Here is the input.
Amino acid sequence: MSSFDDKAVNRLALDSMALWKGCILASCVHGVMLAEYPFTLSENAWFGEIYMVRNDEGSKAALVFSEERELLMGMFDDRKSPRSRLVLSSQYARSHYKEAPEDIQDAAQALSLLFEEKAGEKKLPFVTTGFWEEEDQILSRDNYEDWLAHGGHILTAQMMPFEEAMSYFKAKCSMDDARMEIAARIYQERIKSPKEKVILKKEEIQVLEDTGPYNIQACRQVFGQFGVVFEGETEI
Amino acid sequence: MPTTIKAKKVKAKAQNPPDCKTKGVCPCNVFERCRKRRPYGSDVWSNPKKKKQALGAIAFDGNEGITDEGQLDALLTRFKYRNEAITAYNNTHEKKWRFNEFFANVRSAGGKNKNALVLPATNDLYITQQMNKLKSSMYNTALFTDFQRSMVARANLVRNGLTLRSDKYRTKEGELDFDPKDVFPYAKGHRAEMWSVDHIQIRSKGGCNRFCNSAVLMLVDNSTRNDNGPSCPCITAVEKKGQQPVLDDFTPETSETLKNSMYKLYVCVTYYRNTEEGEAPDYLPGTCHASKHCNLDDPRKCTGILRNPVVRPVYKK
Here is the structure.
């Protein structure tokens, strides 16, 4: 019997590695499409091992991975969830991790800074659900359905298998075949060698530049966040 | 389909508009309304001069290159304060300043500043290709694609003198009214002042991702609106004071006529959530059948399209 069996927590059936791969794929797609659609700049980002995604309805999610790409924590702000209208306090984000060990609660408190929004005069963390890793399991105060309903769905594309996700991105991000190929290639390279730099070839850079000649610097920065560098450049 | 989501479970309750005397099913022919609604930006895309500008490159930054996120944030904040200051000036002075430099033409900026973010130049052929792709992936309760968002942004920018500006919302109830505001095109972090493309007819209530169901809203207003908006197509026309709604182009915010006109939101069917019992209708009233495509969606061809037939609404029996 696990030590958390007597707690009010639920196990979420999330595959860390699959989710990490999904996040990488979403990032690759974001990188290759950014030149044409620069307004998506802030919709997908990596800060070290923290992955952050925002959708165009104002909802966002953050996932914290270990260096071995294991999920450590997830935090969600779903603007379509009724919970987003709850009266908030500065400690509210922490309440989603109430059953977690103290260090995780502290980490959640820190992560919640990324979820702060103006609420009247104050800035408060808007968080509608969350999860954490404990004893190799992903735990949440919500069951899977509730987690999905109150924020998990923000990761719908990231949780899809590769083919399905590409099909989704093709439609949602208005991708053409050339950029789908580039995204797929760097994705495959990235997941094959997670700790190695992946090189975006000159001809691939040219494809991106053709779609948005002035935005290539932004592409470079975005790719650099998850270890993809432009050919001929060693620094990210 | 890749970009669809399931409609949430709801229990339908018919609620006729106050001026409707008919008993029974709401007589509003939502597809008649849909037929008459214009795709977002049709005022720009069907006007040759404006269209030319919309097809051109539009930069997000006037004179400075954007090299890091902190700089971008500072830049946006500066623009915001500057625009607020000029707005305040304009409100108290007869001579008005134009302050649409939030976005500047790339010719004066992008050439030197390769770091500035720019909506790249595009052309009719490319838009047609994208539009054809879109038709095969356009369904109810779907998100707007990046291509659609770029079309909406371009039209909005040109309409508003190269400033991205939210659209005016008015509801019959007056509870979810929003006035036009300058909005940020993008920003590091999550800024309440950012733009968003809103589903006028709420997505979770069956709102489709066609151009005629889109409008620009500030993100914070979009969040406030949440799922509380109408479930029927709603922006029908620009209503002129003292007249019935008439079909007309969307009017630029800067126009004098705006004082007497507004987008009118209509609600003729309201859905109430019912999480405990009842299933959602197979097809929500006011939505197209999932297997049929709406032909009313190319904002460049608004006039011709208005004469085309549309799919029939499917009501739950």
Notes: Residues 10-180 of chain A form one domain. Chain A touches chain B through 41 residues (CB under 8 Å). The mean pLDDT of chain A is 89.
